[in-house]
Design brief:
18 strands; 2 domains; 28% helix; D-amino Acid Aminotransferase, Chain A, domain 2; 307 residues; D-amino Acid Aminotransferase, Chain A, domain 1; binds pyridoxal-5'-phosphate; seven-stranded antiparallel β-sheet; globular; alpha+beta; nine-stranded mixed β-sheet
């Protein structure tokens, strides 16, 4: 049977299927207990951005959670390439996931599970659409606390998203698009799928602790080094964020996105600042020119099911 893979392709149990048909076992602890790790890479104009760095980080997260797969780096890379190549998507969001798996009946012992690998591609995802970015994003500092790193190392990419999700509701209740969560000392951390940067007097600051060390955050830190822009990784009290000249958020799902309103007030003069614009231009340039990018080996977009 011929299927249209153009809305995305999933890889499950050694098969590629249209994303909309992908199903996981309901007793997988990944679903029942959020017992999973994942990573998200992106493809822009037919090129993967830093795919090997994403896969390395994925292996690191698995190791921290005492998970393993019978797949090596090159095999995972091949599966991800296939998920995009079969879809024909030129701009894509590409997720790899490892779950604890399905326990034997009656067992609560995670060691008894065989860890499972899932992957999928879908059209590129934006935290803020391009129209929203043109005006700048509105953000609130939520009272919801980010899960403490003593409870869960936030550098491990994980499915414990309820704090982040309640932050999204907080943002919507206050008429904003996104929320950044605080820690128990009142410092700003991160939001649902993004890191945060502030600009003050020509220098960048981003929270050091209690955050996922995002690939886009890493890329901004690299660019700052390259351009000679001071960039500090340190605790960021709420007051410091409120006093910023510019704020932006970073994510694979949208790159560098300007924030022009914080807690209902304009950030700086309320316009998208020059540092944000410079970094944003440079980021999108890198998505097509970074030497770590790799082209997707495209094939036909219409494929036979279950190849
Ligand atoms: C909690 C959290 N922080 C930050 C990020 C940004 O990371 P990256 O730039 O690798 O997409 C993500 C991405 O999903 C995330 O889930």
């Amino acid at each position: 049977m011929i299927s249209d893979y153009s809305e995305g392709v999933a890889y499950i149990d050694d098969h590629y299927v249209p994303l909309r048909d992908a199903r996981i076992p309901i007793t997988d602890r990944g679903f029942l207990r959020s017992d999973a790790t994942y990573d998200v890479a992106h493809v822009w104009k037919g090129n993967f951005f830093r795919l090997d760095d994403h896969i390395e980080r994925f292996f690191w997260s698995m190791e921290q959670l005492r998970m393993s797969l019978p797949l090596n780096h090159a095999e995972i890379r091949h599966i991800l390439e296939q998920c995009v190549s079969k879809s024909g998507l030129r701009d894509a969001y590409v997720q790899m996931t490892c779950t604890r798996g399905v326990p034997p009946r009656g067992s609560r012992d995670p060691r008894e599970c065989t860890n499972r690998f899932y992957a999928f591609s879908q059209p590129f995802v934006w935290i803020a659409t391009q129209q929203q970015q043109q005006r700048g994003v509105s953000m609130v500092i939520s009272d919801v606390q980010r899960i403490a790193p003593e409870a869960l190392d936030t550098r491990i990419k994980n499915f414990h998203w309820l704090d982040l999700t309640m932050g999204i509701f907080d943002a919507y209740d206050q008429g904003a698009l996104v929320a950044v969560l605080s820690d128990n000392a009142g410092n700003v951390t991160e939001g649902a799928g993004f890191n945060v940067f502030s600009v003050k007097g020509g220098a960048l600051t981003t929270p050091e602790r209690n955050v996922f060390e995002g690939m886009t955050r890493r890329t901004v830190i690299d660019m700052a080094r390259q351009f000679g822009i001071p960039c500090q990784l340190t605790a960021m009290p709420r007051a410091q964020l409120k006093d910023a000249d510019e704020i932006f958020i970073t994510s694979t799902a949208g790159g560098i996105m300007p924030v022009t309103q914080l807690d209902g007030r304009p950030v700086g003069d309320g316009q998208i600042g020059p540092m944000t614009q410079q970094l944003q231009r440079s980021y999108w340039h890198r998505t097509s020119s970074d030497p770590r990018n790799t082209p997707v080996p495209y094939e036909n977009t219409m494929e036979k099911e279950n190849i």
